[in-house]
Amino acid sequence: MTESVTRTPPADVAEAQAAVEAAALRVLRSGRYDWGPEVPAFEAELAAWAGVRHAVGANSGTAALKLALLALGIGPGDEVITAPNSDIATTAAISHVGATPVLVDVEPDTLNLDPRRVEAAITPRTRALLPVHLYGHPADLPALTAIAARHHLRVIEDACLALGAAVAGRPVGHWGDITAVSHAPSKHLGAAGTAGSVLTNDPDLAERARLFSGYGQPRANSYRRDLLGAGQHFLVEGLNERLDELQAAILRAKLPFVAGWLERRRAHAAAYSAGLAGLPLQLPVERPGCRHVWRNYVVRAKDRAGVQRRLAEAGIATRRLYVPPLHLQPPYARLGYGPGAFPVAEAAAEQLFCLPLSHDLTDADRDRAIETLHRAVTAA
Ligand SMILES: *Cc1c(COP(=O)(O)O)cnc(C)c1O
Asked: Could you write out the three-class secondary structure of 219-275?
């Protein structure tokens, strides 16, 4: 569209790749794959980056959610309120610690947990709210944390898509008691495999998350040579959901690039919003006072199938993410909600799809997606 569009991937993508390769080689040559220096170093660096006191490495975003729930002591008999339009990891984590997911519909603009509907779902068994920052837009954390405080509930943030997002100048991870981040390859800080993190300002929750991540034995016991001869001493029945040394080193190599990558995503999103304005599409919003980190640029079209097909024919791949809603899928039939239970989430799920967006998307490819979409919707 302009003369100055970038046609090749930005230089920092190759720079990051070189740093990742060096980091992986460093670990492979050290021969130290667990209980080494990379995991604690990554945790300190991520905590500093996110501005929280503690980060705890985990084996995935799913594991981070489970560790957050276990750290808070949430289990059988407890209810946790969350949204129906997330990755199954969110609700599965709740079920897998023995608690029950209670679903509440979302707000029409952000598709995040609707604070106006949450209080009606609170029962004497409710222990926590688990808002998901869907597609990278933060949930209404000021309203949700106020409700939680009134009802003595804990707040777990699912920031698996939203590292770097903020509300009212305060980043995600600073509002809830504890926060889960995914480092799946396609997330903002992606590993070369599976990884995740727990963030918290509470030292006791951090210690418990660590304990549950590593079999239930204090992590220090695995690092202190003088204790290695003394057997294994478990404080809780833990999991093996640790971050490994190789992924930690790779994440450390990529972390310095993330802030720049988020800015690039924001620039791509702004270009999409400017380039698509006026088309018969519902465009995503960034609410005033919110910082959206655009894991996905999600539009809604009445003739979604037709528009997606015409884009595919032009070689532009689009995706439907977090569709259909979880309550309409077989594992959650047991919750008994059924069609019509969450009209906002269900209506959005009928129309939404994601445009190409990544930190290494070129301006030229983005502009081609915009031009193709103009043709795809006017052909409808
Ligand atoms: C990716 C994701 C998860 C799970 O993270 P994994 O690292 O894939 O286990 C959880 N919640 C949301 C909203 C996600 O997008």
From this structure: HHHHHCHHHHHHCCCCCCCCCECCCCHHHHHHHHHHHHHHHHHHHHHHHHHHHHHHH
